[in-house]
Amino acid sequence: MAELQNDLFLRACKRLPVERTPIWVMRQAGRYLPEYRAVRQKYDFLTMCKTPELVAEVTLQPIDLIGVDAAIIFSDILVIPEAMGMHLEMHEGRGPVFPHPIRNEGDAKNLKKIDPTVDLKYVLDAVALTKKELNQRVPLIGFSGSPWTLLAYMVEGQGSKNFAKVKHLIYNNPKLAHSLLEKIADAAGAYLCAKIEAGADAVQIFDTWGGLLSQDDFEEFSLQYISKIISQVKGKDVPVIMFAKGVHYHLETLAASGADVLGLDWTMNIGDVRKNVGDKVALQGNLDPTVLYAGHEKIRDEAGKILKSFGKGSGHIFNLGHGILPDVPPENLKALVDFVKAESGRYH
Amino acid sequence: MAELQNDLFLRACKRLPVERTPIWVMRQAGRYLPEYRAVRQKYDFLTMCKTPELVAEVTLQPIDLIGVDAAIIFSDILVIPEAMGMHLEMHEGRGPVFPHPIRNEGDAKNLKKIDPTVDLKYVLDAVALTKKELNQRVPLIGFSGSPWTLLAYMVEGQGSKNFAKVKHLIYNNPKLAHSLLEKIADAAGAYLCAKIEAGADAVQIFDTWGGLLSQDDFEEFSLQYISKIISQVKGKDVPVIMFAKGVHYHLETLAASGADVLGLDWTMNIGDVRKNVGDKVALQGNLDPTVLYAGHEKIRDEAGKILKSFGKGSGHIFNLGHGILPDVPPENLKALVDFVKAESGRYH
């Protein structure tokens, strides 16, 4: 296979020298793009996830339209519980719903152990096809939810404000919680390995709901399962990015977890984090996603502050501090990407 | 007037010696209590807020039923924007709504400058009546939302996931945002001073949405207005508690803001925070509110960890890391309060 034409992202993950700071953004293949909405209008969300041609089409859109330095496969973290046997519905406006959530041992028993090469073959096919269509222009990122974040959805059945039901579970039946987390970690680890086999050049683990846990609970119910997945994936020798939103308190532990890159939300000061852990990992982030509602001058000002805060040297992958919001004008993201490309050279 | 029978809370606020750690919990006068729901069934929320007899009744309930060491006046942070002229509706299940939010200069012009002794007289009457009915058993806390948190509601018109509209405002029309924040800070400062005049023994400022801001934005759009209120209130010589949920990064700045007490959410390690800032302020918190879904043994274990983490000496007010959730069994809160009362003596 030909060499990657743009490997800035992969080099930055390994903290190798780069000519400029690479940039991609979470949810870059998504609703803010009219071209994405045009596809989405014709197919429901899960059909899109399960149709490799459609996945490849929308995954490539931000590469062509915005010019980001990495692609991330279009999918959803909830494909794992669905493969484990949970019926998943996507409700317009309300988001994903499991009508039969996991609440007790009986529900848990019905979850099957998955073989990703069979049960999630459609994702692997999509990765392979997307990789081919990318034609080595930029690297392709695969991803998974963390076991804790997946468990939270599986128990709540949907998004939640206080996550009362999964908290109920961990406090009143920790044994069941741990056996579920173990099962999910096995599935997620195997899934990420299979994605790498299928062509992913890097993987990201999203712990979207890690920040809902106290520090002790995070260690017990999230971190140990994340570490387990990372150990499993590390053998595949591609960079692992760990993004635990709101987990401001465990950055040093996360930096020692074996991940190559830590994703930071926008409440962190990337320069301070670099001082604390930047000799262990690369850092990804961390512009407030709502800054993309601002005018281009303000966007450039804020992006410039982040480049400056990180400072000179490699190990920075520019990104937002969370997913791009669906009502952001695409030209504002384009302005951000163009700015980072033009401006970051001076730091290298 | 007779002396306070239980002044543990006030002494802990000033880091003076206490025999045991005092405890109260945010939203302790609220829906988790059947006795509160019985009142609420007969009156709508705003009628309750505006009827001093009802305010006194529900404010006293957790003192009588649970035995907490401080009362906090039953009210809502949105009474300030309502007094400024915004029509406020309380929707069952959906929370408070301003049907005519502030979006531009024209909307802003309609906000009137308030005199709390006239426009919020009903709160002051409620404070005075509650103080009388408390009969010096425990201190009474008054509160206000921070200017940023109030602005967020006034611009969004309701709770929000991403607070896109208020972020739009601060990034695209910072001048208008600052003039609104100034106006709100003036109102909130005057309001807290009037509450103290009416009998409040301490005040708490809630910056519920401060954690949505990046560090620079927090300084620009929240902190400076909080500091302004604190300076104004400090002349009244009662303790000021500052609770900025999710603002993990600015604890040292907040500790230097003139507040006597910092409230901590449950993602902080109270022992670590004490090491960093505990010579400047007392600390309030910080049990994960969802721990009250657990059995009594687990509740005691987790509360014990927090007492131990803070360690020996005064300057700790036990509380939850956020408001008590409406579906918590009252006996679980009682178990927490009894435990803290029985167990904390050894740390003093």
Q: How would you describe this structure in keywords?
A:
TIM Barrel, alpha/beta, homodimer, 16 helices, 348 residues
Shape of chain A: globular
Q: What can be said about the biggest beta sheet of chain A?
A: 7 strands, parallel
Number of helices of chain A: 16
| Poorly predicted runs of 5 or more residues of chain A | none
CATH topological fold name of chain A: TIM Barrel
Supply Rg of chain A.
19 Å
Q: Give the N-terminus to C-terminus distance of chain A in angstroms.
A: 29 Å
In helices, the fraction of residues of chain A equals 40-55%
Largest interface: A-B, 32 and 32 residues
> Which structural class matches the secondary elements of chain A?
alpha/beta
Q: Tell how many strands the DSSP assignment of chain A holds.
A: 9
- What oligomeric arrangement do these chains adopt? homodimer
Number of domains of chain A: 1
Q: What string gives the helices and strands of chain A in order? A: HHHHEHEEHHHEHHHEHEHEHEHEH
Strand order in the sheet with the most strands of chain A:
1-4-5-6-7-8-9
Strand content of chain A: 5-15%
Tell me, rounded to a whole number, the average pLDDT of chain A.
96
What is the correct CATH architecture of chain A?
Alpha-Beta Barrel
